[in-house]
Write a structure and sequence with these properties.
Elements (H helix, E strand, L loop, with lengths): L17 E3 L1 H7 L3 E6 L11 H14 L4 E7 L3 H12 L3 E8 L6 H5 L2 H7 L3 E6 L4 H14 L4 E3 L7 H21 L5 E6 L3 H12 L6 E5 L4 H18 L12 E3 L12 H14 L8 H13 L8 E6 L10 H4 L1
Helix pairs in contact: 2-3, 2-7, 3-5, 7-8, 7-9, 8-9, 10-11
Length: 331
């Protein structure tokens, strides 16, 4: 897998650390737990989207774009990192927010990621829940063109075959670290939403024949929808990498039992998991993605889903800035 043939602009602090979670391992009595610290990618306080943006922003520059458009929820980690990437590269940025969380308070609407979006100078447009956001992006792009600028549209979460290259690269990085540390990884676990992280990881791991299964803990869609979404992107990414047919449908596994009432809606399991990780390891996870992913992993450990002698790597996708948008829940 020769990723240097794809355009890339360096935005992230890489490699991110691979760290043991010794106290949590002891707390559960096994399996052995590690965390891949993709909350430490650096840009805009870090997060998994920075890996994707390295390839997406490079393509935008190659196409001569001067304006970046993307969309997400109000407290989108992806939008925060996109706004920062655009600022670093001297590009204008429009963020289209879908108001998916009902009864949102002032903290959710104005602090956390939203505050940083504004500081980075992004223009924010708001839409009601259920809006066709791809259509909205197209309409804004038309307006940008009519004003003499050149837009580049990044899909929600940066999740297309270009963005997924960031996590194909992460697969290489993680396996290299594990080899250097003599750590045999039995399972990789992370929160899965827009599919780019899981799709890129699975494609990358399959291309290098790593033999490590990936479990996505869903945050916004039923299992059949989520697995289909991930498979389609993983298959497309593998083809883009030059290995058509490299991913099988059976390689895609998502557990979507920890979503609760919906995307961005806190659950008691998420709250307990975030508090436990903070108290045991001094690590902060976010309430929308990594917190629910952590809840899923902890619950599956408690139910004996993994062997006591297994080694699990949880990919911390960042987003702790979003905790400030949920002050009423954590306060």
């Amino acid at each position: 897998m020769h990723l240097a043939r794809f355009p890339r602009v360096r935005l992230a602090h890489l490699p991110t650390p691979l760290e043991p979670m010794a106290r949590l391992t002891k707390h559960f009595g096994g399996p052995t737990l590690y965390v891949k610290r993709d909350d430490c990618t650096g840009l805009a306080s870090g997060g998994n989207k920075t890996r994707k943006l390295e390839y997406l922003m490079a393509e935008a520059l190659r196409e001569g774009a001067d304006t970046i458009l993307t969309q997400g929820a109000v407290q989108s980690n992806h939008c925060r990192q996109t706004a920062a990437a655009a600022a670093r590269l001297g590009m204008k940025c429009f963020l289209l927010f879908e108001k998916r969380v009902t009864d949102a308070d002032d903290a959710y609407l104005n602090s956390g990621n939203v505050l940083l979006d504004r500081i980075y100078g992004a223009s924010i447009l708001e839409y009601d829940a259920g809006t066709d956001m791809n259509t909205a992006l197209g309409e804004v792009a038309d307006k940008v063109r009519s004003e003499g600028s050149t837009p580049y549209i990044i899909p929600g979460g940066g999740s297309n075959k270009v963005g997924a290259l960031g996590y194909a690269n992460c697969a290489l990085e993680l396996v290299a670290q594990a080899n250097d540390m003599d750590v045999k990884i039995d399972h990789i676990i992370h929160a899965t939403g827009s599919a780019g992280t899981q799709g890129g990881l699975v494609a990358g791991l399959k291309v290098i024949n790593a033999g490590i299964p990936v479990l996505g803990i869903g945050v916004n869609a039923p299992q059949d929808i989520q697995e289909t979404r991930v498979f389609n992107l993983a298959e497309e990414t593998a083809d883009y990498l030059g290995v058509p047919g490299g991913v099988a449908r059976s390689d895609i596994v998502a557990n979507c039992n920890y979503i609760g009432e919906g995307y961005g809606v806190p659950t008691q399991g998420m709250l307990d998991a975030v508090h436990l990780a903070a108290h045991m390891e001094g690590l902060l996870f976010d309430p929308v993605y990594s917190g629910k992913g952590l809840d899923g992993m902890f619950d599956l450990i408690s139910k004996g889903h993994f062997g006591k002698n297994d080694t699990l790597v949880f990919i911390h996708t960042g987003g702790s800035v979003g905790l400030f948008g949920y002050q009423n829940v954590f306060g």
